[in-house]
Design a protein that fits this description.
Layout (H helix, E strand, L loop, with lengths): L1 H16 L34 E4 L12 E5 L5 E8 L4 H17 L2 E3 L10 E13 L4 E11 L7 E10 L5 H25 L2
Parallel strand pairs: 1-4, 1-5, 2-5
Antiparallel strand pairs: 2-3, 5-6, 6-7
InterPro entries: ABC_trans_aux
Protein name: ABC transporter
Organism: Sphingomonas ginsenosidimutans
């Protein structure tokens, strides 16, 4: 009787095994980028109306709304690099590079949105239009359409920033390294724009 009951339970469980997923095979590595302009450790930062800025995570098109690296194969075709996966979505990686670069290069105090209430600050938002590889040119391409509202002003300034860096090979590590350099190039351009005052 007990044997029959166990056999029935086993028979009921077997079909479920094909329906359940316990997570896909983890990638061999996760990729990331870091700012080449790091803030000084231990340096005190005091937010003021002229030095405080909020960096919003940029909006992105669907092709980079995930953690994969897109390859633009033609005007109408996009693929993804096999086994290439970011540690988090590119928009967040890029926003972090922007924040570190603004602090180190432009002397800005970067605030979280919740910290900016009651304190006059600039606001930087935008669209990360491209964060991938152009196969025909063999280049990593980062394009950021920035919108800046300076502290105490209502006017919105808009500007496009772009960087292209050669890719040694269209494979995970080479693509990530080139995209990291391109992202830092764009972040440096943005920091110089913010610092210039116009």
């Amino acid at each position: 009787m007990r044997f029959t009951r166990n056999l029935v339970l086993a028979a009921a469980i077997v079909p479920l095994a094909g329906c359940l997923s316990f997570g896909g095979k983890p990638p061999k590595q996760l990729l990331t980028i870091a700012s080449t302009a790091q803030p000084q450790p231990g340096a005190a930062q005091i937010a003021s109306a002229t030095r405080a800025i909020v960096v919003q995570v940029p909006a992105v098109p669907q092709t980079i709304a995930n953690t994969r690296i897109p390859v633009q194969q033609s005007d109408v075709a996009v693929a993804y690099i096999k086994d290439a996966q970011w540690s988090e979505p590119p928009a967040r990686l890029f926003a972090r590079v922007l924040g570190d670069t603004l602090t180190a290069r432009a002397g800005m105090v970067v605030l979280a949105p919740a910290q900016s209430f009651g304190a006059p600050s600039a606001d930087l938002s935008g669209d990360l239009r491209s964060f991938g590889v152009d196969a025909s040119q063999r280049q990593a391409v980062v394009i950021y359409d920035a919108s800046l509202t300076r502290a105490g002003q209502s006017a919105i300034e808009k500007r496009r920033f772009e960087a292209r860096v050669p890719v040694a090979a269209i494979e995970p590590t080479a693509a990530a390294e080139a995209l990291g350099r391109a992202a830092n190039d764009v972040a440096g351009q943005v920091a110089d724009w913010v610092r210039s005052g116009g």
